Amino acid sequence: MKHLLKLEDWTSEEIVEALNLADQLKYEQKHGIEHKILKGKTLGMIFEKASTRTRVSFEVGMTQLGGYPLFLSSNDLQIGRGEPVEDTARVLSRFIDAIMIRTFEQSEVEALAEYGSIPIINGLTDYCHPCQVLADLMTIREFKGSLEGLKMCFIGDGNNMMNSLIVGALRTGMSISVACPEGYEPPKQIIEFAESFGDKFELCRKPADAAKNADVVYTDVWASMGQEEEKKVREAAFEGYQVNAELMEVTHKGCMVLHCLPAHRGEEITADVFEAHADEIFEEAENRLHAQKAVLVKCMTE
Ligand code: CP
Ligand code: NVA
Q1: What is the mean pLDDT of residues 98-118?
Q2: In a domain, 75, yes or no
Q3: Does 2 fall in a domain?
Q4: Is 128 an active-site residue?
Q5: Is residue 1 part of a domain?
Q6: Are both 160 and 190 inside the same structural domain?
Q7: Which domain holds residue 96?
Q8: Which of 57, 99, 109, 207 could form a disulfide with 179 if both were Cys (CB 3.0 to 4.6 A apart)?
C-alpha cells in the first residue's frame, strides 16, 4: 500500500516519478485533455487545522480526476470528541478509498496508516508538509529546468516546511543551507538525515551565510498554526531572519523566492521581495493542485 506520510518514505525515484506525472497532468489540464483516472473513488479529507490551498486543491484535484472529495472537519467528526484515531481509521477504510489528513501530531497520521487499510496522505502536520514540497520542487523544475546542482536556502523556523524541504532538496540532487536562530533548529532526526548528505547540507546562524549564491530562497511564517500564543516571543527570536532586498543581494543571479503561503509581509518577507517574485510564488500555489493529483494517482492506483 502506498502512503505519503512523510517525504523521507519516498525514494528519489518515487519523488521524480511524481513530479513527472504532475507535469503531465498539468499539461493535460491546460489543454482540456480529460484524465478521470480515479473515477468512482472517494477521498476523505480530515482537517484539524485551517486551510485554503490544501483543502481547495485536493477537492478540485480529486474532482478533475473523476473522483469524489469528502470534506471532514474535526469539529464535526467524533475524532474531535475523542474517538480514537485507530477506530476512525478502521471505520473510514470500509467507506472510502483514501484519506488526506491535516493535523498536529505526526503520530496520528502514522496511526491512521497502521490501523486503516487504505492509502493515507499527509496534508500537513507539525512535523512535515510533504505535499507542499512536491509542489515546490515542481515549480523550481519549471522555472530552472532541472533541480540537480541547485542551491536551496531556507530562512526562519525549523518547522514542518523546513523539515520537508531539507528532505526534498537533498533527495533530488540539490544542496540546502538553512538559517535559524538558536533553539529553533529542525529536529534531530532531520539533522541526522541531512548530515548523511555531507556538505550538501549546512546549518547557519546568519541568514546571509545561508543565502550566499542561493538559486532558491524559501521562507515561512515565524509562528505556525498552533503556535499563535507564542507569537510575541517568536517575533523577538526571529528578528533579522527576514527575506528582504539586502539578503537577495548575496544570492545567485536569477534567484527564485518561494513561500508556501500564507505570508506575513513585514515579518518573514518584505512586501517588495514578495511582489517581485509573485509570479513564482503563485505558480507554486497553483502547482499544489497538479502535484497532489500526481500523489493521489500514485497512492490510489499503485
Ligand atoms: N501552504 C498551505 O498548505 O496552505 P493552506 O494552509 O492554505 O492549505
Ligand atoms: N508552517 C506553517 C505552514 C502553513 C502552510 C504552519 O504549519 O502553519
Answers
A1: 98
A2: yes
A3: no
A4: no
A5: no
A6: yes
A7: 7-129+288-301
A8: 207
Task: Identify whether 90 is a catalytic site residue.
Answer: no
Domain CATH code at residue 277: 3.40.50.1370
175-179 and 151-155 beta bridge pairing:
parallel
Q: Which residues line ligand 2 (CB under 6 A)?
A: 124, 159-161, 220-221, 224-225, 260
Of 131, 153, 255, 260, the active-site residue reads 260
132 is an active site residue? yes
Decide whether any atom of ligand 1 lies within 6 Å of the 53 Cβ: yes
Upstream peptide bond of 262 is cis (omega within 30 degrees of 0): yes
Closest CA to 125 of 85, 93, 174, 97: 85
Q: Which of 3, 53, 55, 129 is catalytic?
A: 129
Catalytic-role residue among 3, 277, 288, 290: 288
Q: Please state the domain count of the chain.
A: 2
Give the separation between CA 15 and CA 172, rounded to whole angstroms.
8
Q: What is the β-pairing status of strands 120-122 and 98-102? A: parallel
Mean pLDDT throughout 221-245?
97
pLDDT at 295: 98
Q: Does the annotation count 288 as an active-site position? A: yes
> What pLDDT is attached to residue 226?
97
Does 153 lie in the same domain as 49? Answer: no
For the full predicted model, state whether its pTM sits above 0.90: yes
> From the DSSP assignment, how many helices (H) and strands (E) are in the chain?
12, 9
Question: Are residues 265 and 294 located together in one domain of the fold?
Answer: no
pLDDT digits (tens, 9 = 90+) for 242-284: 999 999 999 999 999 999 999 999 999 999 999 999 999 999 9
Say what the pLDDT of residue 253 is. Answer: 96
Would you state the pLDDT for residue 74?
A: 87
What's the longest Cα–Cα distance across the chain?
Answer: 55
* Residues 45, 94 share a domain: yes
Measure the CA–CA gap between 107 and 261, rounded to whole angstroms: 25
**Which atom from ligand 2 is nearest to the alpha carbon of 51?**
5
Instruction: List the grid coordinates of 268.
Output: 518573514
Residue 266 C-beta-side C-alpha neighbours within 13 Å: 0
Same domain, 90 and 230: no
Residue of the CA atom closest to atom 6 of ligand 2: 224
